[in-house]
């Protein structure tokens, strides 16, 4: 990357925002998954200090209202728009996208942050496994439906961005099981494996979106680091988190692991959304707010897999993604 601010493991979202305050000013940004004590909330909170508009989403209207009120209490001048969105439901995704598309302003940045992590096997109303539906197919459809709004923000000097919050789990296993994506089977399901597949899908989607848009949209993916968010307090997630060695028997974080705070964890999302040094690096993967493509597993960076995933996901949603 070219010269400019230097970031590290300890860099916070506020520090990244300060470095790129001129890039954030005037922007309209949508962040999915913004419940309190989450990565998405911290991301939205910091962006709201400087942006023209921040759209926050959640599937629970009461919790969404609480997030809005908490941000407004700290930042009275913040322009916050709450949007009810359940990414596991095509109908909800379509309704939410229509609500945004009915607004007059363009959308500069879409941050696909929300995720269902380590959940039990369950089919959605659309017949998909919940984790892959919420983490990959829903965001894919949402991004597709909001693409006209994103393209409307483009200028000769600005290219709209889409950010996918992935995870170090993109390197786990063998990547996306395309058959399981189309034909979910409870007998073959593993919470941990499905999570890794979903996070690999995030990376592949960013790569293919950047490729197919031919310079009209720059997409990025990232790993935020190990952060004690609200996911770590969900009873159905705790056994899996204990089995992979991040939580102890007392349900507390294992101190020997390299944990980040929420402000540190959100930093890389801010960099992916606003660092102008990424303009000529579409499809890049970030870690510690810096390009880190070398950390990608082969199955998460394979162009053939990215193209296949895109085509299968278009088939699942029943429509083509056009620019």
TrEMBL record:
Gene3D superfamilies: NAD(P)-binding Rossmann-like Domain. Coiled coil: none annotated. This is Uncharacterized protein. It holds the Pfam family adh_short. Keywords: Oxidoreductase. Belongs to the short-chain dehydrogenases/reductases (SDR) family. One of its GO terms (molecular function) is oxidoreductase activity. The lineage of its organism: Eukaryota, Fungi, Dikarya, Basidiomycota, Agaricomycotina.
């Amino acid at each position: 990357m070219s010269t400019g601010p230097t970031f590290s493991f300890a860099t916070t979202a506020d520090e990244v925002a300060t470095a790129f305050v001129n890039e954030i000013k005037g922007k309209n940004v949508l962040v999915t998954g913004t419940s309190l004590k989450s990565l998405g909330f911290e991301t939205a909170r910091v962006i709201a200090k400087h942006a023209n508009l921040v759209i926050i989403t959640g599937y629970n209207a009461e919790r969404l209202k609480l997030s809005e009120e908490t941000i407004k209490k700290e930042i009275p001048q913040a322009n916050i728009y709450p949007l009810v969105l359940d990414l596991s439901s095509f109908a909800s995704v379509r309704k939410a996208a229509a609500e945004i598309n009915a607004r007059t302003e363009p959308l500069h940045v879409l941050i696909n942050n929300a995720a269902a992590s380590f959940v039990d096997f369950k089919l959605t109303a659309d017949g998909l496994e919940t984790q892959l539906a919420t983490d990959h197919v829903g965001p894919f459809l949402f991004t597709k439906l909001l693409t006209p709004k994103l393209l409307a923000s483009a200028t000769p000097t600005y290219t709209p961005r889409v950010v996918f919050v992935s995870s170090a789990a993109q390197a786990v296993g063998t990547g996306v099981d395309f058959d399981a994506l189309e034909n979910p089977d409870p007998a073959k399901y593993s919470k941990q494996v499905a999570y890794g597949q979903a996070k690999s899908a995030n990376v592949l989607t960013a790569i293919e979106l950047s490729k197919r848009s031919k310079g009209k949209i720059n997409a990025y993916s990232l790993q935020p680091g190990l952060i004690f968010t609200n996911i770590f307090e969900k009873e159905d997630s705790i056994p899996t988190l204990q089995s992979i060695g991040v939580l102890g028997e007392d349900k507390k974080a294992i101190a020997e692991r390299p944990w980040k705070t929420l402000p540190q964890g959100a930093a890389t999302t801010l960099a992916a959304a606003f660092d102008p040094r990424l303009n000529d690096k579409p499809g890049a993967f970030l870690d510690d707010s810096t390009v880190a493509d070398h950390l990608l597993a082969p199955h998460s960076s394979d162009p053939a897999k990215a193209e296949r995933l895109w085509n299968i996901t278009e088939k699942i949603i029943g429509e083509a993604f056009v620019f």
